[in-house]
Every structure is written in structure tokens, then in C-alpha cells.
Amino acid sequence: MGIRNSLRSVADRIVRGDKPGERGRRPVEQPGRDVLYLIAEPGYPNYGDELIAAEWLKYLAQRHPESPVVMDCARPGPAAAILQGIHPRASFTDTLRRLGTENPFPYDGPIKDIAGFVGEALENDGLSPRYAMGIRLLQHRTRSIHILGGGYMRGDWTCNLSRLAIGPFARQHGIPVIATGLGLMPLDGESLAFARHSAAAFDGFTVRDERTLETLNNGGSGKAIAELAPDDCFVNALKGCYMEDESLPAVMLCVQSDFVADSERLHTYAVSILETWGIGLHDPIGVVECNPLIDRPIYDYLIAYGYDHVRFFPLAEILERGFPAREGQRWVSTRYHPHILAAAKGCTGSFISVDAGYYDVKHAAVLRMGSHWTKAALGQPAPLPGEGFADPNLPERYSKQIRRIADILY
After folding, report:
1. CA 33, CA 30: separation in Å to the nearest integer?
2. Using an 8 Å Cβ cutoff, are 126 and 19 in contact?
3. Fold match between 2-229 and 251-377?
4. Taking the complete model, does pTM exceed 0.85, yes or no?
5. Range with the lowest mean pLDDT among 58-72, 248-262, 330-344, 380-394?
6. GO molecular function: any one (predicted)?
């Protein structure tokens, strides 16, 4: 009971927002600290998370090839295999992720309990002795901390959201810390209070969608906690991200099966879009897999339906060769990063809404960034495709915007 009561007291302080710290304070550099510490979510694998992690490692390989880089993620083994060789001194761990999942409280229980444990363990490695060496690396060797962008933290995923506790820890220890391109929706209640207080401790905190921005900043303090920025995938302006293959099909689909109760209804609707666009059973079609197994069923459905010229792009091939988008394609996607990369390439398309509180927020962010794709909703008539990015220079502009925030650390 002693440990549990101690954790609750720490958590209560976090959720109440005691002593939030002054934003923009430049921490004093401490000798002996050489590690650039990244927090991200590669390794599941899921294409967007792998892309963001890879692009930041490319950036650091250019800026700081001599510095050790540690990436903290949920699955460091697969992440190391996927991202090997991008930065010459990169290594992978799961310290912060483990603290969020291996604690005395229920998985994805109240944020005050889980984040309280994380904050306490970061100060006292005796609370989680299996991860003491990782905690000590954070305490004594870390030069800077950077939470990379993505949608892997949200209010009801409290084990993941608890990673924001690294902000108050970093400020307490004088370690520069930023977060870039996050999407935290849906977010409310105690999770929102925790996120607001934690974000206020960062030296820079950007989000990729307006809903997250408004939710974090409308806290009544009158002071902005977060800033709006592009998705982190643009840090290097998407250079080298695309597959070079002249035989890529003119019509592409990426349709997941994990956010709908009736996947067959979703697949039937995707076919109705193809039929509205005049795509016949013998026309070439590409199916993109961003998440293994979850994105495969649409391919099997198309084959069973009678389409006889369907090419499957497994995630492993995409990770090795690049994203299969080219000018002139038409796309149907439920997923967010295929929408970004295809639209940025100038492809026309439609996105299918599968989750109003999560994915619709993501797709709205892509529309703000420059896409003009049409929204397709189950039960509604299939739309015609909308245009992609009208300005081909947007990725370069977004790269400069993201790098301005990163200059705080790098």
C-alpha cells in the first residue's frame, strides 16, 4: 500500500497541474550527456509510424551522425530490424513503454495511476528494477528528449499517453524536451488534464490536427500550450520516400479492417467507389498494406469479387522500396499516411471514414495540409475523387517549419 499511495500522490499532482514550470526556459547543458533520446512507435509495424521514425533518423544521420541515438518504442526488436542502418549509432529500447504497461495498475487504467507510476519510477529506478539501466540512461546520459509525431497516444490509451510524463521529468532534470506532430484525439477528462500539464513542461510542443490544438489550448489559462504543425513525415520533404516503378497501377486501395464492425460492408462500399469511377474487373488495381494482416482482407475480397488484375503491395516491400504512389493515380484509402503521401504526389482520391473521433480528425488534418480528396461515408453514395496537393512545393515548406521547432534540440 505504501508504493500505491505514493504513486497516487504523484499522480494527483500531475493531474491537478501543480507548478507547471515556465515555457521556453532553456535548460543548462550538463557534461557527460551525449544521448539523443527519441520516443516513437515503430516496430508494430504500421507504415506511418515506421515512416516517421525513419525520417527523423535520416535527419539526425545528417545533423548528428556521431551522436548516439536511442529510440524508445513498444517493439524495439522489430523496429531495429526495420530501421537498421539509417543512423550509424542508433539503438532501440522500450524503457518508457514498459513503465507504462508493467506497473501495479490495470492496463489502460486511470491516467493518474499509470502516469503517476511512470513519473515516480523515472526518479526512483527501485520501483521498476528490471528497467533500472534504461531509467539511469535517461537520468544521467540523455542530452535531449524528443517525442516523435503520430497518433499512438490518445486519451483512452492511457498506457501510451503516460509517455507524456517524460516532459515534467525532463524539465526537472534540465534536459531539453520537445514533441512534434502529435495527434492526441480523442482526449478528455483526467487524460486531458494530464496532457495539458505535461505539455506545458515541454520546450516545444506541436500537434498535427486542429482538434488536438483546440482541446489542449482551451484550458482556461489563456496561454497556448501547443502549436499547429504539419505531420512529421515531412521533416525531409518526403525525399526518397516513393517507390520508383513505372508499372505501378493507376488505381490504388488501402482499406483496413480493424475500425469497423462489419468489414464486408466496408469492402462492398470500396467496390462501389471503384464502380462509380468506372473501374472494371479487368483493370489493374493495387492494394497497399500498411498494417500486416489488417489491410490484407480487401485484396482477398477483390479477387473473390472477380477483379483479375490486382497487385498486392505488402508492407515489407514498401519499407524496402518506398511508397507506391505516382502522379496520375486515383486512390481510395481509409488510412491517414497513404492519404498524405498520395495526395502530396498529386494523386486524386477519396478517403473512407471509419472512425469519426479518430480517423476523421486525421483526414481533416490532411485536407488542411493541402489535399482536396473527397470524403466517402458508409451508407452514402460513392463520391468522385478529389484533387491532391495543388502546390508541389508544400513538402519543402513543411520541412522547414518542422525543422524550426527541432532546432531547439538539434
Report:
1. 6
2. no
3. yes
4. yes
5. 248-262
6. transferase activity
Q: What is the 3-state secondary structure (H, E, C) of 250-317?
A: CEEEECCCCCCCCHHHHHHHHHHHHHHCCCCCCCCEEEECCCCCCCCHHHHHHHHHCCCCEEEECHHH
How far apart (Å, rounded) are the C-alpha atoms in residues 283 and 20? Answer: 58
With vertex at residue 348, the alpha carbon angle to CA 245 and CA 311, rounded to the nearest 5 degrees, is: 40
Q: For residue 393, give the amino acid letter.
A: N
- Residue 142 and residue 125: Cα distance in Å, rounded? 16
d(CA 103, CA 203): 28
Whole-number Cα distances in Å, 67 to 27, 42, 63, 82: 19, 21, 9, 20
Separation of alpha carbons 390 and 331, rounded Å: 16
Q: What is the per-residue pLDDT across 94-110, written as a single tens digit (0 to 9) for each?
A: 999 999 999 999 999 99
Cell, residue 191? 487524460
Q: Which residues pair with 352 in a beta bridge?
A: 376
Q: Domain 2-229, what fold?
A: Rossmann fold (3.40.50)
Domain ranges for the chain: 2-229, 251-377
* Amino acid, single-letter form, for residue 205: F
| CATH class of the domain whose range is 251-377 | alpha beta
Query: What is the spatial distance between Cα 390 and Cα 393, in angstroms, rounded to a whole number?
Result: 9
Phi then psi for residue 66, to 5 deg, are: -90, -10
Q: In the numeric block, which cell numbers belong to residue 252?
A: 490504388
